[in-house]
Amino acid sequence: MGAEIAKWVYTRIIVIRHRTLTAFRRVITCTGILEFRPAASRRPSLYGRRLTSANLFPSQMKKNRQFVAALCLLIAAALPSWAQKGGPPDEPPEASGRADAEFLQAADEVLAEMSNLLSLPIREPLKKSVRSRDEIRQFLLRQMREDKDDAKRYADQKALEALGLIPKGYPLDQKLVALLTEQIAGLYDPKQREFFIADWTQPTEQRLIMAHELTHALQDQYFHVEKWEEEVKTNDDAQLARESVLEGSAMVAMIDYLLRGTGKSSRDIQDFDPSLLVGDVNDSPELAQAPMVIQDEITFPYIPGAAFVQRALRQWKGWPDVHRLFENPPASTQQILHPDLYFRGVMPAQVDLAPLAKVVPRGWKKLDENVMGEFAVSEILKQFLGKEQADAIAPSWAGDRYAIYQRESRMQILLLIRLKLSEEAAATRFFGAYHSLLEKKDQTRTAESRRQNFFSFNTPDGGVFLRCYGAECLIAEGATQAMFDAMISAVHWPPALPAIPESDKPAITVQERAVSPVNTAFRTIVLSQDAETLVPAYAFH
Ligand SMILES: [Zn+2]
């Protein structure tokens, strides 16, 4: 669910979520950059091209694809030694006093440049230090131990399992720790407001990362980002939207840093597709093996987030206006995915789960109640029906609320989801798609029952029920018929009508919704096959 998943993943690592997200995320960032094998190692001719202003603006930006390709080249040029090494160094640190001094000076210079670029004067000196790989690893493990929220993590894991987004018993903790500690280049610690740099990286490699990380540091001085994220800690969807503002602005600021002195900025890119700047997830073995939802969750704040922030930059006058996003943050991943909805002030519908919760029998313990959001709904559809159907159906999300329970005596799980769609026709389409999804997900089902806009069956883990009425849908997994009937009655829905003829069964075909298909536009390929994406989203945080 947008939420949990988000939570999880996104913190990427689950472990730390609620309280220390930030520190973790920082890590990821830097982790990713080290993981990254520059395209140059696979395509030396591209990489070897000399960077000149002519390369950067081949035809005065008449063609965006050339512009974006040039931008990628520029990023490649900023990361020379990785390409030469062909990957992160495994050899012992080569730290020296001189190298340390260069790091520290580079951090000060980049901080000054970012301060100017973002119109955020430095309020306090940046604490920074050069640390060994092991020191950074120990710091992370300590943070994970101190901050991990066992109850939330457990609830997220159970919900993700129930939704079929991760295998049952998936060793999430172990995987997250492995991912976090796989490679670490540095991090920004928001608690101590300190920027760490690994002692085996080179100043030239670090400047691009610094531009991203120090954007976080500067925003933190003004907007206290951890506290700002905590304001919506009971709404995972809203929290992922705020995370997208943080990561998106750091990505776009990084691009502006690259373009400084050229007379151009990220605002000049018309069909901005930040996914082009993101590396191949397969370059990180741990990430590549992670379930799809985890991969998507990790990259969400960087890709749709960057597109959202770039749109805000174009809509408004520049960075000073973009800082308003902290005063009036996007409320949902839907607003991030479809910025028009944010600018038009279209808010998610509030969904009340209380009537359903009241009929859950005693003996069931609520593990969590939260919001999935369009992102998580899309992930669920994508997992079973593919991206095309997910892109067609998920934008009709208008609001949701879900709860996950555990029956203490038998370790059974009950998942309840109440979903509002944009209109009744959208709910009918959702029903058709989700009906198909459930069939694919539970292939050993028994005692199927189909009525109009109603579908149910039994599984060894309990009954599964799907019912839509008006513009709403209700899903219960792990329930009983009596429990679901009581829920339908509690929300004052009429009983489902009798079965309908085969020919009238819900079609799975879905129509595009009118709500701006921003994603589709983003995905327009603006790069030639020769161009490579060069910076992994998870390289930053
Ligand atoms: Zn970041």
Each distinct ligand:
zinc ion
Overall body shape: globular
Mean pLDDT: 74
Low-pLDDT segments: 1-95, 508-541
The largest sheet is: 7 strands, antiparallel
Which structural class best describes the helix and strand composition? Answer: alpha+beta
Supply Rg. Answer: 24 Å
Number of helices: 25
List the helices and strands and how they pair.
Layout: H1 2-10, H2 17-35, H3 44-47, H4 53-56, H5 64-77, H6 80-85, H7 97-118, E1 127-131, H8 133-147, H9 150-162, H10 172-182, E2 186-189, E3 194-198, H11 203-223, H12 225-230, H13 236-259, H14 285-288, H15 292-299, H16 303-315, H17 319-322, H18 333-337, H19 339-343, H20 354-358, E4 364-370, H21 373-385, H22 387-393, E5 397-407, E6 412-421, H23 424-441, E7 446-451, E8 454-459, E9 462-469, E10 472-479, H24 481-490, H25 518-522
Parallel strand pairs: 1-3
Antiparallel strand pairs: 2-3, 4-5, 5-6, 6-10, 7-8, 8-9, 9-10
Helix pairs in contact: 1-9, 1-13, 1-15, 1-21, 2-8, 2-10, 7-11, 11-13, 13-16, 21-22
The structure holds zinc ion.
The site of zinc ion has 7 residues, from helix 11 and helix 13.
